[in-house]
Amino acid sequence: MLLLLPPSETKRDGGDPARSLDLGALSFPTLTPPRRATLAALRRLSRNLQAATLGLKLGASQRFEVDRNRVLGSSPVLPAIERYTGVLYDGLDAQSLDPAERSFAAGSVAIASALFGLLRADDPIPAYRLSHDSRLPGLSLKTHWKGPVSAALAEVEGPLIDLRSEGYVALGPLPDRPDAVTVRVVTEDAGGQRKALNHFNKKAKGEFTRAVIRAGVRHGSVESLLEWAPSAGIRFVRSGDRTLDLIV
Known about the structure:
Blueprint: E1 2-5, H1 32-46, H2 49-55, H3 63-70, E2 78-79, H4 80-83, H5 87-92, H6 99-108, E3 109-113, E4 117-120, E5 124-125, H7 141-154, E6 160-162, H8 166-169, E7 180-188, E8 194-196, H9 201-215, H10 222-228, E9 235-240, E10 243-247
Parallel strand pairs: 1-3, 1-6, 6-7, 7-10
Antiparallel strand pairs: 2-5, 3-4, 7-8, 9-10
């Protein structure tokens, strides 16, 4: 089973000063060539402050994001699950996981990335700024990543549980198979009507991921996950052949 998470716009600073970005240390090695191309395009963009501000959709107070991108090759690295911050990652709270839970996460959690395509939870990465809708010179992120990421996901054995946002799904759609499902976070009123959540869905996704990690059960099927969920206080309902509603 692999849980697929979105990244976040915000990144934690710092990391191991003795290590820097090594593409050979990242999971999904078939993505190394497109990673090199994306890094090269981002470096070209970052040479021009005005172009980078526009291409990355940055505000006046976010020049530091361009500075980060300029030193990607020499910046310290952190495990991806610690690098990303924000509501989802607050709910996951990776830094409080014990060693056994971190080991489980390393094998069961992947994070989408506009820069790296797809990462395992413990892949060491620097702080950077690049979003699914960023504009790079001579490179369309959707066209660039769609085929390689989808192919990498198709090679993963077992269920794929997709918690990514729509923008990142577009960079690598799920393979067409019964055990590849999308999770939608919803509320349910007294009459049973469900409504999708926007901002607050991130917290629910983080907390769900944390619950799976802490339980340490490697589910071999979507049905196994659904049978386990009530024991963790999680309520799922199938809303389609390949869609699960997480009701909060």
